[in-house]
From TrEMBL:
<dbReference type="Pfam" id="PF13177">
    <property type="entry name" value="DNA_pol3_delta2"/>
</dbReference>
<keyword id="KW-0548">Nucleotidyltransferase</keyword>
<protein>
    <submittedName>
        <fullName>DNA polymerase-3 subunit delta</fullName>
        <ecNumber>2.7.7.7</ecNumber>
    </submittedName>
</protein>
<dbReference type="GO" id="GO:0006261">
    <property type="term" value="P:DNA-templated DNA replication"/>
</dbReference>
<keyword id="KW-0808">Transferase</keyword>
<dbReference type="InterPro" id="IPR027417">
    <property type="entry name" value="P-loop_NTPase"/>
</dbReference>
<dbReference type="InterPro" id="IPR050238">
    <property type="entry name" value="DNA_Rep/Repair_Clamp_Loader"/>
</dbReference>
<dbReference type="GO" id="GO:0003887">
    <property type="term" value="F:DNA-directed DNA polymerase activity"/>
</dbReference>
Amino acid sequence: MSVWDELTGQSEAISVFRAAAAASAAGGSNDSSMTHAWLITGPPGSGRSNLAYAFATALLSDGNVDGDESVRLQVAARSHPDLAVLSTDRIIITVDEVRKLAAASYYSPSVGRYRVIVVEDADRMMERSSNALLKALEEPPPRTVWILCAPSEADLLPTIRSRVRSVRLRIPTVEDVAELIARRDDVDHATATRAAREAQSHIGMAHRLATNEEARSRRAETLDIALGIRSVSGAMLAATKLLAIAGADASALTEERDADERASALRSLGIEPGGTIPPALRAQMKNLEEDQKRREKRSLRDGIDRVMVDLLSLYRDILLLQLGVETELVNLSIYNKLVTASEQSTAQETLATMDAIATARRRIESNVTPALALEAMLVSARRTGATA
């Protein structure tokens, strides 16, 4: 199986990286196809990190651009000796994390031609962190390859952008994502297609919707709550409900991972399940718990943003019906409800609601209390029942 088989809808980008891996395998250090630093950009869910790890696998597989199976498994487990990864579930990547990674970039490869360093969510670096990375990119070791991932080039400093080769991904089609989900997750095509459509081609979210009944239920409840708002007091109550849904979604994503991390940490410290943690080791467990709390905060913010993305898809569908635009709707499963909602307001009111959602997203990103931002947003979402 080729390492590129798990990717979808990115044939142009795959061709670029395959050519680079082939040039590397042929020893073409002066070949323009290969460079020491890459930036993969694209919208959320387009598969930035998946492509980064596929390229890493190809580089670490000596001479095999399709990737050796043993290397693929090591990269998937993040255990390959020549692979270093910086990813975070927190709000920012700290300068200490970047400095540590930059120092590791000067180590010689252990078993292969290259040492590969992947930085997921490079857009979460503040200026100090970016400057620490810039120094490593300015003086690159000859056998180290950096692969950065970010939503857009504008998310990084111009000085960093000038030192990387940028490859932009496109949004895969619903059909491409559905085909991947059906094949990889062993679900029927109809379920995969609905999940891909409602996830708006976000591969990770499509996987969750196709394989997790609770995730589907939470999304359906989100849309029903928004469609049921009839008054200002109803908007206040809806904000509380949506916060609860976002919290439940965030908890579902973090609880299992937190438990696995804690169990793994205890095993590594030689402590039996349920055993007492010696005082000398409690500091390490406390650090893990603090990291998990920071990740929980970020996960909640991401959960709130997912709720608002779903609401944007809802009002986008309503607006298309109001304008008489004939195109496929995102939320086809509630078509009758969409028609009713489109008759209870005007296109101008729907546009105002979409603007309010965009404003709320910016406010929350600027650390405005989510409850207040959601309440202000949902006041504009009232449907009085008066036919436009």
